[in-house]
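Pair request: fold both.
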Amino acid sequence: MQDLVLLPFADYWWAYGAFVVAVLGIIAFDLGALAKPDATVTVRQAAIRSVVFVLLALGFALGLHQFLLHELPTRPELAGLAHATLARDATLEFLAGYVVEYALAIDNVFVFVAVFSYFAVPAQYQQKVLFYGILGALAFRALFIALGSVLMQYHFVVVLFGVFLIATGLKILFLPEKPLDPANNPVIRLVRRLVPVTPDFRGDALWLRIDGKLWVTPLFVALAFIEFSDVIFAVDSVPAIFALTNEPFIVFTSNVFAILGLRSLFFVLQSMVQAFRFLKYGLGLILLFVGAKMVWLNEAFDGKFPIVWSLAIIGAIIGTSILFSVLFRPRAAASPETR
């Protein structure tokens, strides 16, 4: 049963295509109708958009469930199976994957804040960098997922990914976090070596020609760093969701919905990233859990750890880490008068 794929790409390529078209439409509407050029996004606007994207994901989950309820009984190879249970489990797998990806996306926000601060990116230009960054993230995730869906057919790869996630989780929990250092990032050094960089911003331009020679702006360098960071995050996040489901369609759609909400999430959380100081430990525990699923738990439960339990455990970890962050806020440094 663990090898059963309900929505194989060969048979449901049209569903992938329709989803991609819908996503491109959402992005175009969000950018064209809702975002004004050079406008600074307010926290209220970003919060509303974040809620809308979450509601879209929940609506998609409901639609997926209804589609599977009607589609699965028409599949001869699924005769004799509990179609309602398959549809329910697939929907819960989407929700669990979405929650994990959304939580891991918050880690991206911390990087965005550090990058924009390091490069002193004006607030009115941050939206453009995030927009192109998210487009790049969608392309990279699609590539990683396509590759992962092939590799995950081999059991030893599943175990290797599981061990990697466990090691990453332990690293997050027990090793001190290294400060972000864009100046020594290999991608940034490569960009500076290949093309000259203007000393200051030129509006929202990513590149321009000066005396016939191509120059890039600090905005382009910031974008390059963000794209590089997302590739690193994808190495963790894509195997993590494959631990929850072997459905490439669910892996792809849950990833996309999490990324779609990332731009709005940044503007909501950018001023309060330090408030979620225990969230990284929650993410470490989640990676430990999904790694354990790939290495041991799925086999221990006859091929598949119950998705209801997975969703409950992931929700409890995230909820607890957020609760601890709220209850145990970092103490402000004492002022000279109070010392």
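--- second member of the pair ---
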Amino acid sequence: MTAVPLPPAHLLTVGEYATLGEDDAGRSELMEGNLVMSPSPSPDHNMAALRIALQLMPQLPQDLEVITDVDIDLELVPPDQPGFSRRPDVIAVRRSARRRVRTEGGLIRASEVLVVVEIVSPGSRRTDNVVKRAEYADAGIPHYWIVDLQEPVSLLACHLTEKFGYLDAEVVAGIFAGTEPFAVQLDLEDLQ
């Protein structure tokens, strides 16, 4: 039997959260300094994330790359305050971000991310569609794509506006084709 780790005795900054490391943090995220644990995604969820990443990779401009299942600092509060960190399923990020993390440490910053992709799970529907949507918009991430694996597999592409947070495009099934922030086509049926 594995013991559940005790939560920290105080609210965490993003820097403190980053020092927990992969083994201690597990499938966790940081919300206003609180460590939030969630179960590992299902095999279908993980396979969909992998297939999205594999489809995106050859379509990205040279200055971008795809990373899966990595913590990002939403940069919603000063570094010394209880922070916010999310672990999206897939991100398209500037190549310089991973180099910066390698040399400086810390997490990938929201300001380095162009697209966040979240795959809806049975227990994350409200979180992905409401909570994370608001947090990613507040963090200034330009594009948020929500993938729903329920038949038919669909994608809701949201782009950030200056005044109103994210604006939704039409929900798409079959082939998703976009032009912003780069030209892309995703075969959503391949995600099943």
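Observation on the second member. The mean pLDDT is 92.
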